[in-house]
Each structure stands twice: as structure tokens, then as C-alpha cells.
Amino acid sequence: MEAALKAETTILSGKPIAERVLSTVRQETADLIAKTGVQPGIAVVIAGTDPASQLYVRSKGKRAIECGFKSVEHKLDETVSEEELMALLHTLNADPSIHGILVQLPLPSHINEARIIQEIDPAKDVDGFHLINVGKLTTGMTETAAIPCTPAGCMILIEEVIGKDLSGKSAVVIGRSNIVGKPMASLLLQANATVTIAHSRTKDLPSVCRQADILVAAVGRPEMVKANWIKPGAIVIDVGINRVANPPGSEKPHRIVGDVDFEDCKDVASAITPVPGGVGVMTIALLMANTLKAAKIAAGK
Ligand code: NAD
Description:
By secondary structure, this protein is of the alpha/beta class.
């Protein structure tokens, strides 16, 4: 008997989906301004000169302007004190033209990041890292919560393939960070998936992953997930962004890869996100959506 042909794998590119999110944000921003006079405003705070952070901040500012937002950047010196940073956050908390405050992480090592995040007004915490927003997410009060942008973007990608209701699906999240792994697991649980969180202390990770109809990798280990970790037909979402050296003589010295070995896994999965061009582009789009949501709530909409 002839072996059944495997259906083609969907390469889940984030670009068109992020563009759709941004287009809705642009439209709704124009409506909000027309109806209420409220223009969404975002403030990005960066301390230090880390080139990757500078690049992220620039692209966030550019996207905000394209969405019709007011966008301000506060570039602080590497040596800024915790008190100075807190004072700036208090000023932004009190500024009615600012609806979203984003503190670019990582902060310089002498600053306590957890303490700084708690100084942001939860209503303006568009990253969704404040304890109030974490609590709202885990208790299901998502209507007024800011949901962390990367996991929210992953959920839209998953929805694109199998819809909003994940009843009966088994999901495995590799990674338990506060910014990706844990909120990702909360969102999958709220969508009715049966969720396992795996991490650095998990025993026999490949066999845990093989149970997953939906596998989300948020680890920070280049190409760790291999084809034999994947249940045939699973949806694979790769959050990882890892810079690896190219072989000597290559055109560029480095390239960016995910936590999933894309080439190895792409024929086993039914859908898989590429890196770059998958989850990463969704994150900024969701940041804009969160800022608009905060502005709408502030305007009583
Ligand atoms: P993190 O370092 O805070 O957490 C990594 C997690 O991976 C930890 O919970 C740890 O337990 C787990 N882990 C580490 N080694 C492991 C192993 N060998 N086996 C199983 N689990 C292991 O990282 P993070 O902030 O959650 O980010 C994870 C990755 O996602 C990074 O590559 C980061 O650059 C990327 N990231 C991407 C976006 C995006 O927009 N695409 C956003 C945030 C983070």
C-alpha cells in the first residue's frame, strides 16, 4: 500500500498577520481621535547604550508614529540611579497624554528591574509585567488587563491555524520566564488547552514535548528542539532569538536562529514559525494594540 502523503507544512510567517493587527490599530486610532480627541501616547524609556535595545526602541517609536500615536523616547545614561528612573516614571504616570509606558529591558545591572516595573501605573503598563496585570491575566480578567505582547502574539499565530478554542489540545511551553513562558501558559490554559510547562529541570524533555499538539519554545538555546521532539502534525511556535556565529568565510559573521531547528522540524510539524519573521514581528504589533487599548480605557471606551 502506498504511504499516505503528508499534508504540506504551513510556514507561519508573522509579517502579514502583524500587518493586519497594525492596520486595525491604525483604523481604530483614527476613530478614537475623531470621536474623543484622545490620541494614544506611548513613552519608551531606555537606559544605557546596548545596540540591540537601541534598535528595538527605534523600531517601536517608528511603528507608534505609523499607527497615529504620540511617541516619546527618554534616553537615560547608563549610570542613571533607581531614584531618577522612578521619578521619571512618576512624571509619565501623571501625564494624561501618555497611555503606555515601556521600560526597555535589560536595565543596567545596578538597577532592580522588578522594583522599577512596579512603579509603572498598571493602567499604563503596556508590557503587562506589573503584578496587577499578571494577577488579572491569571484570574481571567483579561478585558482590562495588559497581556504581555510576545505570548499574546503567539496566541494570534496559533489561532490562525486552529482557531480560538483549544479544547482537547495538549500544549507544552518550554521556558518559565515571567515575560514569556508563564503568561504563555496562562493564555493557553484560558483557551482550554491542557498545559504543561517544561523548563531546565524537566526530565526527558524530548518525550514531554512529543505529547504536544502545540509546542511553544521560549528558552534562548539555539536550535535545541529537534524533529524527534515533535509530535507529527503539531503546531510549533518558536519564540527564541539567538545570535550564532557563521562559519568562517561567510558573507555575514552572525545569523539569527530560534530555539527550534527549523530545517529539521519543518517536515514533521503541520505549522511552524520561522526565525526571524515569525513571533518577533508580532511582538511590536501587540505593543501598539496594548497602547491603543489603554488609551481607549482612559477615554472611557
Ligand atoms: P529566560 O532566560 O528568562 O528564560 C528561559 C527559560 O528557559 C527558563 O525558564 C529556563 O528554565 C528554560 N531553560 C533554559 N535552559 C533550558 C533547557 N536546557 N531545557 C529546558 N528549558 C530550559 O528567557 P526569556 O526571556 O523567556 O526568552 C526566551 C527566548 O525568547 C530568548 O531567546 C529570547 O531572546 C526570546 N524572546 C523573544 C521575544 C520575541 O519577541 N520573539 C520576546 C522575548 C524573548
